[in-house]
Amino acid sequence: MTATRIAIGGERPYETVVGTGVLPAVPDFLGRQAGNVVVIHAESLATVAAVVGRSIAEAGHAVRLEPVPDGEAAKEIGVAAGLWSRLAAAGVGRDDAIVGVGGGAVTDLSGFVAATWLRGVRVVLVPTTLLAMVDAAIGGKTAINTADGKNLVGAFYPPAGVVADTGVLASLPLAEYVSGLAEVIKAGFVADPVILDLVESDPGAAARPGGPHERELIERSIAMKAAVVSADLREAGLRETLNYGHTLGHAIERAENFSMRHGEAVAIGMCYAAALGRLAGRLDPATAARHRAVLTAVGLPVRYQPGAWPELRAAMAVDKKARSAKLRFVVLDGLAKPGILADPAEHLLERAYAEVS
Ligand code: GLY
């Protein structure tokens, strides 16, 4: 099957290439001027990074591979500072480029280092998890964590291109793949119900890499996100709808000390948002029930501990302070009709939690 190219618009338009065996497309996005190309990659992805590195070298650029820790441990100021030092030592200049190979943590870190080095050098992202392909690598959000929280330091910095090779998903741990499916299903509920139809047609197959609809699910999810971030890169409005299920999801991640997979927490958070929407008279019961059915069918959790409400409520309040004066939830006014529920009554918040606990 040939590669698909999905355009992402806005102030700095770029493309995402999707397909099997598309890693050699990386040099297409590096720019002719790039003498040095630094490939930042998750330690465990040395093989994928080597394939990417070879294609860059064959295109005539000097390549330097920079392994970083897997997962969130990559998003540390110490890791970024180490990379800045090595970029300096390698003489990486304004026309040079960075490539980020890994899951969402590594693409966030690579984007951040690229955004900050010399006030911005070109970055190409090579997401290797389902979550990173459909979400983290698309839309120009870059970040590292601080002792005070996740993603507190970063920049909106769109990449020059994204290369999503679906062939690499086969080696992903199954639970990691299923976690990514939560963001795919989110795209179905907020914007593209065909996604839900495809998952529901064979949930077991959707929950494994290489399923019959994998490519279409990924492309539809990316296209959905592309449309949103093309219109609203800086989250002034529409982009907020991508946070569907994330308000409670983030609180659960925090309660779990970030040991729960993001998609698992978001799955519970989507069921919560659906219950909240229904209780507020915004969402019909059948669409609310569809959340639990489809998420359960692919093996995602839909409930959390009954006694956790006070802690989760407090965590959402902290999240609130960072955003605005009041709690804001993305809810649905129907399938693919996202809206905002601001400052809901306390009893609604609690009743909705009772439905997911
Ligand atoms: N992951 C949500 C966003 O990119 O806005």
The helix content is 40-55%
Please work out how many helical segments DSSP would assign: 13
Proportion in β-strands: 15-25%
Distance between the termini: 44 Å
Rounded mean pLDDT is: 96
Tell me the radius of gyration: 20 Å
Written as H for each helix and E for each strand, in order along the chain, the element string is EEEHEHEHEHEEEHHHHHHHHEEH
Walk across the major sheet and give the strand order: 1-2-9-6-5-3-4
CATH class of the largest domain: Mainly Alpha
Main sheet properties: 7 strands, mixed
Cofactors, ions, other ligands: glycine
Number of DSSP E strands: 11
Can you tell me the number of structural domains?
A: 2
User: What's the architecture of the largest domain in CATH terms?
Assistant: Up-down Bundle
Set down the secondary structure blueprint.
Elements: E1 4-8, E2 14-19, E3 36-42, H1 46-58, E4 62-68, H2 77-89, E5 97-102, H3 104-116, E6 122-127, H4 130-136, E7 141-146, E8 149-156, E9 161-165, H5 174-190, H6 193-201, H7 203-206, H8 214-231, H9 246-255, H10 262-279, H11 285-297, H12 309-323, E10 328-332, E11 338-342, H13 346-355
Parallel strand pairs: 2-9, 3-4, 3-5, 5-6, 6-9
Antiparallel strand pairs: 1-2, 7-8, 10-11
The chain binds glycine.
Residues 135, 139, 141, 239, 242 line the site of glycine.
